[in-house]
Amino acid sequence: MTWRGSTTVSDRIFACLPYLLPLIEGLTFGGYLFREFPILGLLLIPLSPVLLIYRTIPFATLIIFLALFFLVVRNEKISHFIRFNTMQAILLDIVIFLCSILLEILSPVPGAGFAIETLANTIFLGIVVAVVYSVAQSLFGRYAEIPAISDAVYMQVR
């Protein structure tokens, strides 16, 4: 959907960058898959510099989260396309946070190891698919429509 006007190449690139936040946060759920299939670790090589910076700065998640929200989403001077994708990445990150709380609640339950592993793998794959889809749509200059999340984004970004 491109009803807000055409997008420039720079808008498309900047719209993709916020999706690094949920991708990096979602990597914690992929631990089981990375242990089972070590070859998947090769996919993380391009993310190495970002991961290094992300892991060395204290409270990096919170700083990036707040900076994206207040400096990008709430700034009406920035194009709607970039603000939409930034807010969608923020909401994906919130979903990841809620899923991590769910796994923390389930972890003390005896015998729930297999269920936790399956749930973590599903969350990881879901986040990766959502990020890849959103980045691809952004590169094409289209709004990525993720059910429920995009509706919430449209309510936040005008």
Automatic annotation (TrEMBL):
Lipid bilayer topology: Multi-pass membrane protein
Q: Which key words tag this protein in UniProt?
A: Membrane, Transmembrane, Transmembrane helix
Q: Which residues cross the membrane?
A: 12-32, 52-73, 85-106, 112-136
**Location in or out of the cell:** Membrane
Name the major location: membrane
Q: Which family does it belong to?
A: Belongs to the Tic20 family.
Name the record gives this protein: Tic20 family protein Ycf60
